[in-house]
Amino acid sequence: MHRWGMVIDLDKCTACQTCVVACLAENNIALIGPEESAKGRTIHWIELVPYIQGEYPHVKVRLIPRPCMHCDHPPCTKVCPVYATYLNEEGIVAQINYRCIGCRYCTTACPYTVKYFNWYEPRWPDEMRGALNRDVSIRTKGVVEKCTFCHHRLLKAREKAKAEGRDLLPEDYVPACVEACPSGAMYFGDLNDPFSTVSQLSRERRAFRLMEDLGTEPKVYYLSEGM
Amino acid sequence: MRLFLIGLVIGVILVFIFINFGLTSRLNQPLLFNHKIHKEAGVECIQCHPFFKEQRFSGMPNVTICIECHKDPVTQNPEEEKIREFYKKGKVFRWNRIYEQPDHVFFSHRRHVVLAKMDCKDCHGPIEESEKPLTKAWVKMTMKWCMECHTKKKASNDCLVCHI
């Protein structure tokens, strides 16, 4: 059984936001315009979170890409009253939008604030109408959405591998953000395989996870020197 | 009181009309297609629905596919003449979909036909015996129905397998 995980090398990351754009395009994330955005209702499945160190004038700002952590002990799934979000066998925290009743318990429970509520009917500029991804369903108003590690890509990869009569190779399934990263700072793979890149990197000296003291056991690892 | 009664009667009549309309409405297809005759003539499903082995969708045949066999009259049927008319005018068939999964369901024909080795009729019923276009779905494709088959065939019933 696979256990999918991600490693983000902050020493390589240039904070260019390509991952953010790739994610917006891949997962049909609605663009809500400046006014609603000012209310803090923008949806980002992956987002660059500023991390400020030191005091003025010796300030050092770092931007940390933050997708859903796909925790092994996710606080969000425990509060869902309708089983719309749950941890599946392969370690992906699923969000079934059609099942969601929009109570927003999970958005409150998530310590990483990666869950987003749809305050509006999703809209796109007219030019983008043909650019939506057919593999990802369009969310409706009043449901919560979040990063799925591009699970639709796993479905397709698995189907392709099986049709060709071979096992799923690590390069078959890669989320859009990892694929798009121009500096090669993101890695994705099976944490259960001791020889996979992510598994080896996750055991490295530089590796750490966000808010580790909460005991959520995230499957997104960060690498950084002196952090 | 009288006004209320009149309103009630009109309401009841309207409800009956709507129910009746709902029961008798028929899906109009551009052509009275006969699956049975084609099957008997040795035409396989894949010749008209060409994509179900490679894609998520199976594909509905259009004039260009029909005209390959029907360039010259094969039978005396006036319906057949329609194909050549459509072709001459450069028009395309606008089939009404009978089976269509909603947007939040990921269904792949390839996965079911090629990988799970299922037959068309496992989901579509004995469609090759239909002589007229279906007016309504023969099989009710509900989630329960999908999940029962998944349980029987030991396929995964994880929500993420179909819902993304």
Any key phrases for this structure?
heterodimer, A: 227 residues, alpha+beta, Alpha-Beta Plaits, four-stranded mixed sheet, 7 helices, 10 strands, B: 164 residues, mainly alpha, 9 helices
Q: What's this entry about, in short?
A:
The complex is a heterodimer of chains A (227) and B (164). Chain A has helices spanning 18-26, 33-38, 75-79, 105-109, 151-163, 176-180, 197-202, and strands at 4-9, 47-53, 60-66, 85-87, 93-95, 116-117, 144-145, 186-190, 207-208, 220-223. Chain A has 7 helices and 10 strands.
Structure report:
The complex is a heterodimer of chains A (227) and B (164). Chain A is an alpha+beta fold and 227 residues long. Chain A has one domain: 2-Layer Sandwich (Alpha-Beta Plaits). Chain A contains seven helices and ten strands. In chain A, the strands form four sheets. A four-stranded mixed sheet of chain A has the order 8-1-10-9. Chain A has a two-stranded antiparallel ribbon with strand order 2-3. A two-stranded antiparallel sheet of chain A has the order 4-5. The radius of gyration of chain A is 18 Å and the shape is globular. Chain B is mainly alpha-helical and 164 residues long. Chain B has a domain at 31-60 and 95-162. Chain B has nine helices and no strands. In chain B, helix 4 (63-70) packs across helix 5 (78-89). The radius of gyration of chain B is 21 Å and the shape is flat. The termini of chain B are far apart. The chains are: A alpha+beta (227), B mainly alpha (164). The interface between A and B is medium-sized, with 20 and 15 residues.
